[in-house]
Amino acid sequence: MEQVLENVGFIQNGVILPGFIFGVVHVGLVILGFYTGWSINRLLKNVTKGYIAGIIGASMAHVLADLIAAIIDPTMRARTLGIVLGGLLPLIFIPFLEKYVTKSTSHIMVGDHEDIEKDLSEEHHHD
User: Fold this and answer.
1) Which of 49, 57, 58, 65 keeps 20 to 30 A from 107, CA to CA?
2) What is the mean pLDDT of residues 32-47?
3) Taking a C-beta distance cutoff of 8 angstroms, is the pair 26, 65 a contact?
4) What is the domain range of residue 47?
5) Structural domain tally of the chain?
6) In 9-89, where does DSSP find H-type helix?
C-alpha cells in the first residue's frame, strides 16, 4: 500500500502528504453516515423547524467529522481547536439569516422531503 501511495504522490520523502488522513477520514465519515442512515438532522428535527435542522445538522456533522479527522491525522492534530472553532463560528449567524434573509424557493432542499418519502416507499432492485 505504501508503494502505491508513493507512486501516486501521497507520500513524499517518506512522509505522508499533510492533511491526507484528515481528508480521507472526514469524507469517509460523511459517506459512512449516509450509508448507515445516522443523522444529526433527525436528532434536531423535533427541536427546530425542519430546514433549520438540516442547516444545523449538516454543519454540526461537518464539525464533528472535522474534529475526528483532525484528531486522527497527526499532521492536523495541532490545528484541531482552530478547525472546530472555525466550523462552529458561522452557526452564530443562523438567527440573523433566519430573520433577515429570504429563503430561495429554488433551493435544493425544496421538495426533498417528498422525494425521500417517495424513494423510501418504493421497492429498490439492485442489479
Assistant:
1) 65
2) 70
3) yes
4) 19-116
5) 1
6) 20-36, 40-45, 50-72, 80-88
